[in-house]
């Protein structure tokens, strides 16, 4: 999908961008950065976006979020504090304190009141009632908090050493289930599903995993590889693997986006387990992203992801916040050209085709989901019969979600 029409916001931060968050009442975007600042933009996909506010911490900002009423912005920083910015008065107040950097801030709307949740590298999660100077509850974690998300009553946190903690906030804010991550390497992001029955996990191994809470839903769990590139055109079995930095659900369609350090964004259908659209590769890693409240705007940040540490941060690294005007067709699958071979022992099907008979061979989609061919519905024709190498065919087909067990989860 071409994203050449995407528009950059004016006056972006001077250092790496760490977090994006849209207001749920208007198209205001809060942006946290390693230049110690939080910037607020009024966003328009037509190009009339402008900065409307800015405030600062004493160290890099790692996370930003809004409250439910759209009147306050919260930010967490390497200076070990959480700050609140009053949009109406322009005043900034410290509202949280940790013994280590605050990696995540999240506003959670409880049935009777909202609370600010902060996750830190000091191995704690704290809950803050803004009327009190001290936390109303503190959770001791097994390791440093790397990621956190909440959709009441579900809250999920990911820590170092591959631990995933799930909370039922309706029962207790401090008790949690501690399980191992479905991924083998470090977690970068956890995102609660809109239906609150599970969550998505993304990590540095270029893989997304869907996990579910209830035992009767666990049969629907699956993982898939993405944000990978062949190391060379002649070595299809060797891939360059990039971190998945953010996962966001569309507020209307329920589809989701992933962004990665390979500089790409993809839109996916969770239930059909397929890729819908892909953005052109950006000029640098895409470190974070966000949909606005209606899903009509998708913002993403092109910035250094710090995978090489301080030495990798050079003046050539971009710092851009791009705005994409989302269309309904971005969330509808369209057939794409398919490269065919007379002897399809390694047939590559581009576009996520689900209905194709390959007679004993494997079909591998471009997002690296592999399915056993004998479990697929028969296609109308045998498209490789009497076709030459490299022939192109454009087809239409009916999409059907695959049953559990058809997905071959790559090792």
From TrEMBL:
Repeat found in the keyword field: yes
Segments annotated as WD repeats: 54-95, 95-138, 244-278
Keywords linked to the UniProt accession: Repeat, WD repeat
Pfam families assigned to the protein according to its UniProt record, in alphabetical order: WD40
Gene3D superfamilies, sorted: YVTN repeat-like/Quinoprotein amine dehydrogenase
Keyword Repeat in annotation: yes
Species per Swiss-Prot/TrEMBL record: Lentinula edodes
Protein name listed in UniProt: Poly + RNA export protein
InterPro entries linked to this entry: WD40/YVTN_repeat-like_dom_sf (IPR015943), WD40_PAC1 (IPR020472), WD40_repeat_dom_sf (IPR036322), WD40_rpt (IPR001680)
Top-level taxonomy: Eukaryota, Fungi, Dikarya, Basidiomycota, Agaricomycotina
């Amino acid at each position: 999908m071409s994203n050449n029409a995407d528009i950059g916001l004016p006056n972006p931060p001077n250092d790496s961008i760490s977090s994006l968050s849209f207001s749920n009442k208007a198209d205001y975007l809060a942006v946290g950065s390693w230049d110690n600042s939080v910037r607020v933009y009024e966003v328009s996909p037509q190009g009339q976006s402008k900065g409307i506010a800015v405030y600062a911490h004493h160290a890099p900002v790692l996370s930003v979020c809004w409250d439910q009423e759209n009147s306050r912005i919260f930010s967490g920083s390497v200076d070990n504090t959480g700050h609140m910015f009053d949009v109406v008065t322009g005043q900034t107040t410290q509202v949280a304190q940790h013994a280590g950097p605050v990696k995540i801030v999240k506003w959670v709307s409880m049935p009777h009141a909202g609370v600010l949740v902060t996750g830190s590298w000091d191995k704690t999660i704290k809950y803050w009632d803004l009327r009190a100077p001290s936390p109303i509850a503190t959770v001791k974690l097994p390791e440093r908090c790397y990621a956190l998300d909440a959709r009441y009553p579900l809250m999920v946190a990911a820590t170092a050493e591959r631990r995933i903690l799930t909370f039922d906030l309706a029962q207790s804010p401090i008790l949690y289930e501690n399980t191992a991550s479905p991924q083998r390497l470090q977690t970068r992001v956890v995102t609660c599903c809109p239906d609150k029955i599970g969550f998505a996990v993304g990590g540095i191994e270029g893989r997304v995993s869907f996990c579910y809470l209830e035992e009767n839903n666990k049969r629907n769990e699956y993982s898939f590889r993405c944000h990978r590139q062949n190391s060379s055109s002649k070595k299809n079995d060797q891939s360059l693997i990039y971190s998945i930095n953010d996962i966001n659900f569309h507020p209307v369609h329920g589809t989701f986006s992933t962004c990665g350090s390979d500089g790409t964004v993809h839109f996916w259908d969770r239930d059909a387990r397929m890729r819908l659209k892909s953005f052109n590769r950006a000029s640098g890693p895409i470190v974070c992203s966000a949909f606005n409240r209606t899903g009509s705007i998708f913002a993403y940040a092109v910035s250094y992801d710090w995978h090489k540490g301080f030495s990798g941060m050079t003046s050539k690294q971009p710092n851009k916040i791009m705005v994409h005007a989302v269309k309904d067709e971005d969330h509808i699958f369209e057939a794409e050209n398919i490269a065919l071979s007379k002897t399809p022992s390694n047939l590559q099907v581009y576009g996520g085709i689900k209905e194709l008979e390959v007679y004993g061979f494997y079909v591998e989609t471009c997002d690296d989901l592999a399915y056993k061919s004998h479990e697929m519905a028969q296609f109308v024709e045998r498209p490789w019969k009497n076709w030459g190498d490299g022939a192109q065919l454009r087809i239409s087909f009916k999409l059907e979600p695959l049953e559990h067990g058809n997905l071959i989860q790559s090792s």
